[in-house]
């Protein structure tokens, strides 16, 4: 009987401790963005032929002529000047290339968030015992007051 009573007392004392709950939250976000845009503009090839029949007169002098070829980026002029053939070439760059690099770095580092939540749970037997004890005390007080 003493062993059972000792066991019950030990169980009662052991169950009176409050339960503690701790929640730990860790988050790490790292976003890197690299965008490379390449734009290439190529001027198309232009083929044109200039044919001059009998370029010289009967004395062997070069006849006067003039021919002009135009494109979006170039202008070529072919003409005779003082018995010579003169070619004027006005040429922009044929290939335009544009490379734009966009680099965005987004780093959000949240190392450790510690949220400590302490929840106290009272055991059901403790609540029932407290209610019974209060009721029993009230009843005993009534009986004693009547005497």
TrEMBL record:
Keyword Transmembrane listed? The answer is yes
Keywords per UniProt: Membrane, Signal, Transmembrane, Transmembrane helix
Span-the-membrane segments of this chain are 122-141
Where is the signal peptide, in residue numbers? Answer: 1-20
Protein name per the record: Lipoprotein
The organism named in the record is Polaribacter haliotis
